Amino acid sequence: MKNFKNLPYRKGVGMMVFNDQKKIFVGKRIDNEKAWQMPQGGVDENENFEIAAKRELFEETGIQSIRIIKKSDNEYVYDLPKYLLGKIWKGKYKGQKQKWFLMKFLGPNNEININQKNPEFKEWKWVDIKILPDLIVSFKKDLYVSIIKEFSGSI
Fold this sequence. Notes:
Shape: globular
Distance between the termini: 45 Å
Low-confidence stretches: none
Number of strands: 8
Order of helices and strands: EEEEHEEEEHH
Oligomer: single chain
CATH topology: Nucleoside Triphosphate Pyrophosphohydrolase
Number of domains: 1
Number of helices: 3
CATH class: Alpha Beta
Mean pLDDT: 92
Largest sheet: 5 strands, mixed
Helix content: 10-25%
CATH superfamily: Nucleoside Triphosphate Pyrophosphohydrolase
């Protein structure tokens, strides 16, 4: 069996997108019936975090009408649980190290289109920031609590 402890972290971004009602965008993952999450994704080689965040947000949600309010002060890290190690990201990573962006959604809801070329979500909704930790998979819960703590004063 491969020693996953020595694997690197995948370089990534996450986006907390809020609307005029101060609700947060979440999508229900196609590959996990119970998991909702904020958009997130990988950073390509030689790509800066802000460009990656805008690209990933568009690829997952169709959203383009945003204003970046804040970039996270910290990089946030999460480890994959044992049952996912070696199965996702072609087994190259043990988790992700992410920069997060707080973004204000400026468009109408009909701009949101999760039916993308490589869809990640099968459903989406706006939720109260307080319930985010209850929606996410357990191995990302601490990360979400930290992001909420950092961003909640800027929404």
